[in-house]
Amino acid sequence: MIILGIGGILNDAASAILIDGKLAAAVEESKLVRRGRAQGGQLPDESIAMCLELAGVRPDQVDCVAVVRPIPAAQEGGVHLNLRARFPQSRMALIDHHRAHAASAFYASPFDEATVLVVDRHGDFRCGSRWHAAGGQLLRLEKELYSPDSLGELYGRVTELLGFNANADEHKVQWLSAEGADPYRDVFLEILGCPASEWPRLDRSYFDAERTTHGGFSGKFFERIGLDDHAVIPEPERAKLAAGLQRAVESTVLRMAGEGGNLCLAGGLAMNVMLIEALESCGKFDGVFVQPAAGNSGTALGAVFEAWHGLYGEKRRASLGNLFLGPSYSAEQIKRVLENCKLRFRYLLTAGELIDTAVGQLSENKIVAWMHGRMEFGPRALGNRSILASPQDPYSAENLNTYIKHRESFRKFAASVPSELAAEYFEVGPNARYLATVGRVREPYRKCFQSAILDRDLIRVHAVSEEDNPLYWKLLHTAGKKTGLPVLYNTSFNLFGEPLVCTPRDAVRSFYSSGIDAMFVGNFFLQK
């Protein structure tokens, strides 16, 4: 059984292929075309072609094409005709947007029974849904939330209020929230209609439909927070507003999730790792699992899972595995690019020489780009498309932010650690496998990781198992033998707001456009 899933056609388009219950490939369109996220209703042709190539599948071998709504009404017929022509032997299935989100979370989880919560901006006019799943099946929809009562909309408004871009920079507000006290929490709870209702009902009197700046907040909002509604928000207040919003959203989602049992999450708001940590640490749930590519691109996974289980009634559960579901490149392909660019490089003959050379660079406080194997699915670098630095370099965080990523100082970096050693340094749960939560630094190591620590001793933790990524796991252990600390700072290998690098050419361009000191692409070693 071969199922092709297509999701996020309006925004963050992606494709995935499931073969007999096993994910063979999944790729976002933006990583291939190196353009923005919006698709405008067009099919993600590049990611469809890439998934077919990676899976070794011809179009006439595909049994089912599962497409996630919404699709613009004016283009829906054209999309269907296009797919029917390209996949003439396939069954066509349209999957509801929120059902695809829910399927992506539950079927990838380790749970046989769970509450599944989807929270996003407005995927199909719905912005929230809660489902019951049991017996390995997504059984029923328990509750729904519709626009305009959207947590995602409120988060976007505050994102714009703080000077960022709505529907793009919400993650910045999340990280900014870690720096502030939260005196405005109750104001945001009032806006959300809490605690009068279990689920949010946004008080529209706090918004002004005619205002095109300051997030569209009304004079009532600015009066309530005691700030001038025409002035730029003072810097200290920005962190407080972010913190108030974050705490209010966490409180609201906790109520939406219900009580007890296991909890699975998806939807754009589930990309908020601070929220995931709040759910993990609240003590209400036996287990918490978040689908790590929780945004619209992840609905491509939900499409294949829902078709496999819902349409075909299969009982065997699929698995996300290590999320390395994109393309990889041979030594010959890499060499051709490097020679075409007339670059000087060294080819390292063995994995041992590769790792020893990389550890040598890192121990000299060099910033290292690390590109190996198949590209990650989702927005987070899990050790195949990463920029690495040593935590023992007192200037590593400053150098990464200022000279390479060109981003705000409050945006911290993840600490990658072998999963079997993670508990020695951090308190963290299983979602750290995919960098989908935050942990806490244990007291003896707080000084060591000071540059990466958020408020309340929180830190982004990436727990790396030998099974998931043997090369990166070995790199961490070798670094530990040399320096005494088997931990490296890890951030995504991308620049200028682009997605993760995909090809060797993408890597070369990013390397020579930044302050990265050295790069390892496969077994090829480049220095500046």
SSE layout:
Elements: E1 2-7, E2 14-19, E3 22-28, H1 29-33, H2 45-55, E4 64-68, H3 73-86, E5 91-95, H4 97-106, E6 114-119, E7 126-134, E8 137-146, H5 151-161, H6 170-177, H7 185-191, H8 219-225, H9 235-256, E9 262-266, H10 273-281, E10 287-290, H11 299-311, H12 331-340, E11 346-347, H13 351-363, E12 368-371, E13 385-389, H14 396-405, E14 414-418, H15 422-425, E15 426-427, E16 438-441, E17 458-464, H16 470-483, E18 488-492, H17 504-512, E19 518-521, E20 524-527
Parallel strand pairs: 1-4, 4-5, 6-9, 9-10, 12-19, 14-17
Antiparallel strand pairs: 1-2, 2-3, 6-7, 7-8, 11-20, 12-13, 13-18, 14-18, 15-16, 16-17, 19-20
Helix pairs in contact: 4-11, 5-9, 6-9, 7-9, 9-10, 13-16
Task: Describe this protein with a few key phrases.
17 helices, Nucleotidyltransferase, domain 5, 528 residues, 20 strands, 10-stranded mixed β-sheet, DHBP synthase, 34% helix, 5-stranded mixed β-sheet, alpha/beta
The third-level CATH topology of the largest domain is: DHBP synthase
Q: Separation of termini?
A: 49 Å
Strand content: 15-25%
Low-confidence region ranges: none
Strand line-up in the sheet with most strands: 11-20-19-12-13-18-14-17-16-15
- Helix count equals 17
In CATH's first tier, which class of the largest domain applies?
Answer: Alpha Beta
Largest sheet features: 10 strands, mixed
Computed CA radius of gyration, to the nearest angstrom: 23 Å
CATH architecture verdict of the largest domain: Alpha-Beta Complex
Give the CATH H-level superfamily of the largest domain. Carbamoyltransferase, C-terminal domain
